[in-house]
Amino acid sequence: MFPLKDNIPTDRFPVVTVALIVVNALMYFFFQDGGILGGPDDANVVEYGAIPYEFTHWGDHCELTGEQIACEGQSGVDGAADPQAPTALTAFTSMFMHGSLLHIGGNMLFLWIFGNNVEDSMGRVKFVLFYLLGGLAALAAQILVSTDAAVPTVGASGAVAAVLGGYLLLFPRARVVTVIFIIFFFTIIEIPALIVLGLWFVQQLVFGSLDYVSPAGQGGGVAYFAHIGGFVFGMLLIRAFARRRKAPPAALPGWPT
């Protein structure tokens, strides 16, 4: 499934949502030196990405040595790492960094589709706080299940997952125009947000469980538990932030149902 838009209109232009998309894009192309075909600079990702090992071994840092990541205090690692970004700072920089153009593209699409309505429901200042806290909660969940992982966690997906969790409770009856791929064919239909986001969350639970039982090692991958943590945060805290909800229209004009 590939969502395109929802049927919940907004009362105000989503300034914060657009600003977050712009900041993420600027971070990827200029701060990370990411490209259209090539990914970002690896050393930059290691320094400014959030590495669970650095949070559970506070004061010890990790750095890229050749093609491997070495962390102070690890078995077989001698000496101190070169000066690195403060660990606390990486909790914030990591949620504005991405591993590829596809990675940032997917996250920003979901943020645009669902973030504008969540921002509209709580106001701009509260939305900024909700988004950042959701990203921190997502990182905390990932650290809890991979305490010694020396792999940088980057991406807005944890914070976006918090937005998805909040949206699910605010607009469960909303309908989402979605592309459904069936082998070499596709169709466009409207699907209730409850199904779109519910299936997305179940997918994270399944893949996260499989990854936890049979980890792929230190090579990196998808931070499923960050997605789960962010989504749960959004569901639990949305009532404390949102002040209004709107009923969706019957259907999106011009789209098949």
Report the span from N to C terminus: 15 Å
CATH topology: Rhomboid-like fold
Low-confidence sequence ranges:
216-220
Task: Please give the number of β-strands.
Answer: 5
Task: Return the average pLDDT rounded to an integer.
Answer: 89
Number of domain units = 1
How would you describe this structure in keywords?
257 residues, mainly alpha, Rhomboid-like fold, three-stranded antiparallel sheet, two-stranded antiparallel ribbon, 9 helices, 5 strands, 11% strand
SSE order and pairing:
Layout (H helix, E strand, L loop, with lengths): L1 E5 L8 H17 L10 H7 L3 H5 L5 E4 L2 E4 L15 H7 L7 H22 L1 H22 L11 H14 L4 E8 L2 E8 H21 L10 H18 L16
Provide a quick synopsis of the model.
This protein has helices at 15-31, 42-48, 52-56, 87-93, 101-122, 124-145, 157-170, 193-213, 224-241, and strands at residues 2-6, 62-65, 68-71, 175-182, 185-192. It has 257 residues and is mainly α.
